[in-house]
Amino acid sequence: MGHHAADVAIRIEGLRVIRGGRRGVVVLPGLDLLVPAGQVVGLLGPSGSGKTTLMRAIVGVQTVEGGTVEVLGLAAGHPDLRRRVGYVTQAPSVYGDLTITENLRYFAAVAHAGPGDVDRALDDVDLARMAGRRVDRLSGGERSRVSLAVALLASPDLLVLDEPTVGLDPVLRRDLWDLFGRLAARGTSLLVSSHVMDEATRCDRLVLLRDGEVIADATLEDLLEETGAPDVEHAFLELVDHRDRRAEGDR
Predict the structure, then answer these.
(1) Contacts from 215-223 at CB under 8 Å and sequence distance 24+?
(2) What is the DSSP string of 149-175?
(3) 119 to 80, 104, 135, 145, 199: CA distances (angstroms)
(4) Could you report the per-residue pLDDT of 99-114, keeping only the tens digit for each?
(5) For residues 45 and 51, is the Cβ–Cβ distance under 8 A?
(6) Model confidence pLDDT, tens digit, residues 14-33
(7) pTM listed for this prediction
């Protein structure tokens, strides 16, 4: 199956990341991954599986030991990607002493976005009605939506979101996944990490990560069919057990 550059948002080959210098802990031992364009791809796995490290490598802020990471046809971290890739970390990167609107105007100026972009981003994350509130008076979930609005200002081609739904109530989680679907329909590529397996049902494609290795990369449908599991959580456990049994057989 040939993948044209336009169909692929992220291409990773042999990505190796070691935490704590050359003698440190191997976080990603040599990962290969293709993330298709224009889809919501879920990156699922337990805490410590390497999700955040992988995302940092994709946006070009992670020191890597080896391998290649190509994003939208350019090397990860390339200056031209700054406006084309939106990255939302788990820690909100907005200013507490400014209002939501002031934050967005500030970041819009940095990203050379216009007032129309501020209004659009506010609408996208459903914060228009509280735009005048100071960020330090918001709940954690509201703050993370402000961070997401900042990432949406420049209408990025790729959104990399590290556990964006953590701490959100079910209604907000649903609304956020609805937004991800709308963004993908507009042509945006999304890589969304989560440790909540039930969010898998909202993804076009799933990448299951365990101990820095991709143990599955498929649609939910294919994954359930392959493992015979009733849901993604059981599919994950089935794949882990299968790998462990195979590893024991190799010894």
Answers:
(1) 215/239, 215/240, 215/243, 217/33, 217/34
(2) HHHHTT--SEEEEESTTTT--HHHHHH
(3) 25, 9, 17, 14, 28
(4) 999 999 999 998 888 8
(5) yes
(6) 999 998 877 789 999 999 99
(7) 0.91
